Amino acid sequence: MTDSAFSLRRRALLGGLAAGTVAHHLARPALAQGSGPIRIGEINSYTAQPAFLNPYRNGWILAQEQINAAGGVLGRPLETLSRDDAGKPEDAIRIAGELLNAEKVAFIAGGYLSNVGLALGDFALQNKVLYAAGEPLTDALVWSKGNRYTFRLRPSTYMQAAMLVEEAAKLPAKRWATVAPNYEYGQSAVRWFRELLKKAKPDVEFVGEQFPALGRIDAGATVQALERMRPDGIFNVTFGVDLTNFVRQGNTRGLFEDRAVASMLTGEPEYLEPMGEECPEGWIVTGYPRDTLDNPVHTAFREAYRKRFNEEPKCGSIVGYDLVLAIAAMLKKAGNTETEAMVDAFEGIRYPTAYGTGEVEFRKIDHQATLGCFVGRTKLNGRVGGMVDWRYADGANYLPADDVVRGWRPQG
Amino acid sequence: MDSLIVQALNGLASASSLFLVAAGLTVIFGVSRIVNFAHGSLYMLGAYLGWTLTAHGPLAQLGGFFGFWGGVLLAAAATGLIGAAIEFLLLRRIYRAPELFQLLATFAVVLIVQDLTLLIWGPQDLLGPRAPLLRGATQIFGLRFPRYELFLICVGPVMLALLWLLFHRTRFGILVRAATQDREMVAALGVDQRKLFTSVFALGSALAGLAGALQLPREAVNLHMDMAVIVEAFVIVVIGGLGSLGGAFLAALLIGELHAFGILIFPRITLVLAFLVMAAVLILRPHGLMGRKPSGLPPASIASPPLPGTPKWLAQAGLVALVLLLVLPPFLGDYTLSVMADMAMMVLFAASLHLIMGPGGMASFGHAAYFGAGAYGAALLAKHLMAPMEVGLIFAPFAAGIVGLVFGWFCVRLSGVYSAMLTLAFAQIAWSTAFQWVEFTGGDNGILGVWPSEWARGKLVFWYLSLALCGLGVVLLRRVLFAPFGMALRAQRDSPLRAEAIGIDTVRVRWVAFAIAAAAAGMAGALFAYGKGSVFPSFLGIPRSVDALVMVLLGGVQTVLGPLFGAVAYTGLQEQLSRVSDLWRLVLGFAILALVLFFPGGLAGALRAREERA
Fold it and tell me: Which phi and psi angles does A161 have, rounded to 5°?
């Protein structure tokens, strides 16, 4: 139980820090932007999704500490006010108002759930404030509901589906079945996978689909329903506890034997590690091969993270870390914290990702970053799964043509 | 065909798990009449304790057969003890409070357990060990079927048989059944009620813990287990008939099988299926499959003296408050204004629920449906017809009122918890419509860009608008209470027979009250939508219905001012705490517990009690 004891201490410490900042700000009048620290308002579903957002917050803290130790940006340190939205978009909007009006932050960042991201994006448009989204995956954030003030870091649902389609098209499998959580992310992932795979390989056939409720999968019945369809390949979009339950039932019932499985996000340590020894072999996944990704930049990041938090980074840690790096690069280019200047600077900004795979660009055309992810196969090493045979799939190569994007995104 | 039989077996396995949870809940309800919201938390604790005991405790060192099964049983026993402690330390102190008030206490326990579990076990999902001897699968019609699921299929009926023996062949069981039938009579016969209640609560909790621990080999233990199971368990208990074990078993079978086969035909049905079944069953059989008409009053209501007129000091205080609310805002910050506007909407939302819960005597577990109907009504007009805010605000109460008329027509014919659960079923059906009809409602990504008209964009103007509309709504609701209609409403609550005898159409009175409450909630919802600029399915989700209940109960059901105090206290606490600490649920839980223990009549009730003493 040393792990949990540690996390308890760390949470208590963070709580103390947060309480400290609040008291601090009550004690002195708010400083006008322009002198003192650059204040960032950060909103996430910390209490609703702690398993994914604690690593994210750690990554964020690490990057901020490193930047501040090196003298900050524009000669000013970065300061972050973190808030919990409890997983509700309406709370996120209220908190965004609080950060903007009462705490006078220069801009807002964060978001984990897609609907929270969209709500904050719309808030940004209405209030003409910059919003740097980290985790939300929905395509709508930069395409159908995209706007001038919203930027997104992580590779979107479309991009990750496209990466998997590339691999799936190489397989002999013709009959595909899909299983996805019943909400927007699951539905769009399935839609894109079907559409893109049909385009890449017109003779594939989709023989059925399952849409278990998010977090409530009836794994036995779902596995049996898929078995009934007798597919050659399965496209999986479930994650977290649904995935773990699905895999355990699937393993016991032999669903994955002699079948190809392509699976969204499953290579991320967040989802791979809780499965422990149940980790399936040979699934094609997108993810983050933390332990075998050895290049100078990433090794340095991994070491620094271990040293600071006494645990291994997760995919969320990269997102948090990268988002701060991108923000710092943007601030440097903008030269001040005026919203319009920051937005202009963000368009086309480049920063080096902690993956160590080179520079990532925030595209001017749709404000989507070209951060990619790793595509490989799962393999059980000892008692916990990892990724093998992976390669980096650069996000820039998995986006639709520019004129298609322009057609989707509201212009002007 | 063969695979259909295996699918039926899957249904049976789920049914067994569901039955274990529901059995504990129904036993507790039968005796204590407590709507135990914390039952899901006990289930989750059972699973976490089981994980620790089977994978990390001294028993795990033992390993193998005894390590696992000993761990599971010990986890169940430990959960039973926790349940007994909750009853002993908390619920015992508030049995005299109005019924349903205990729901508030158990809700606080849910919040506290959520954060404690996170602190103790951390945020990661935990995968338990597989069960010794039952690891692999066995061939059934050429398909592999896990042995553990076969074992689970047997656990349900065996447990039912054991409980039947307990209740029919032991003195304890006979007392429990007697108390289920008539609590007062059992007490009059000299049975120590306290012991009986504590032991029943412990038994129910141990069943929940056992159900949780038995999930270990098939499900990862996680922090969302409590909420996932509690609603399902309530649905099963209600379909079966409150307090009926056999009914719960039947209902679990029904839901388990419908689920297993439902996903073959409608893969997306999982969200709403259980609620559709519940609505259908309750409409056809108002007391569930095997339930009997409950004795005594429905749980939300308590006969009370006529409402007092407004005392002079209160009218003066109200006037001062109103002047302050009008004069102060120009000097307040934008954020404070938007929080105050939120509070105003919540006051109207709580007041609308109070109308049917207090004077009406009908609890509603699904009041968010009407809040959401107003919000979606306005947002859909804006999205599809480009309607401006003014039109949306006029339309919203009508939209919500019509939804209230439709849903209410069914709900007002039922009584007590059955009626409350039917409102929940309708609310969930409405929620899943908003969630799944993506083309029309935007699905879970909601409808964006529902901003106020240009003149009302400023926070100050929007505050005055919210104050005006919500104030008007609250005043109208108050007028309704003191009008002849309100008297008829109270009459049908306190004495339905006499009310009928003097010519009051009680069903119709309840129905109209339901629709009025729905319309007022819709007004609050529409304002909320314009305040946030967007609408999401969470507007009509269960958590928001629970918020409404908590606000009314916290303020006090029996007083007219209750919802006002409850809404301001609850939203204020939540807003302040979530800014200060990640552990806001823990602190909020303890705050609610403190209020429950010190003010069993609610906040406004406490005020009135003080006045009466003076």
Answer: -65, -40
CB A253 within 8 A of CB A224: yes
Contact list in B for residue A14 (CB cut-off 8 A) is: 582
Residue A270 to residue B519: CA distance in whole angstroms? 45
Q: What is the DSSP letter of A242?
A: H
Q: Which residues from chain A sit within 8 angstroms of residue B144, using beta carbons?
A: 252-254
For residue B177, give every residue at least 6 positions away whose Cβ sits within 8 Å of its Cβ, in sequence order, or none: B167, B168
Would you call B435 and A183 a contact, using CB atoms and an 8 Å cutoff?
yes
DSSP E strands, A45-148: 78-84, 107-110, 131-133
Best probe of the B interface among A218, A242, A266, A383, by most B CBs < 10 A, is: A218
Please give the pLDDT value at position B99.
67
Chain segment B265-294, per-residue pLDDT in tens: 888 887 788 899 999 999 999 888 988 776
pLDDT exceeds 50 at position A19: no
Q: B228 and A215: CB-CB below 8 Å?
A: yes
How many angstroms separate the CA atoms of B276 and B270, rounded?
Answer: 11
Q: Give the pLDDT score at B239.
A: 93
Helix, strand and coil in chain B, % to nearest 5: 75, 0, 20
Edge-to-edge strand list for the sheet holding A205-210: A205-210, A175-179, A233-236, A260-267, A284-287, A373-381, A384-393
Q: Which residues contact A53 (CB under 8 A, 6 or more apart)?
A: A44, A45, A46, A112, A316
- For the ranges A144-158, B96-110, B323-337, which has the lowest average pLDDT? B96-110
The partner residues of A120 in beta bridges, in order of sequence, read none
Tell me if chain A has a CB within 8 Å of the CB of B336. Answer: yes
pLDDT, averaged across chain A? 89
- Nearest of A65, A60, A66 to residue A112 by alpha carbon: A60
The encoded tokens of residue B433 equal 């419509």
Q: Provide the shortest C-alpha distance from residue A120 to chain B (in Å).
A: 10
What pLDDT sits at residue A225? 93
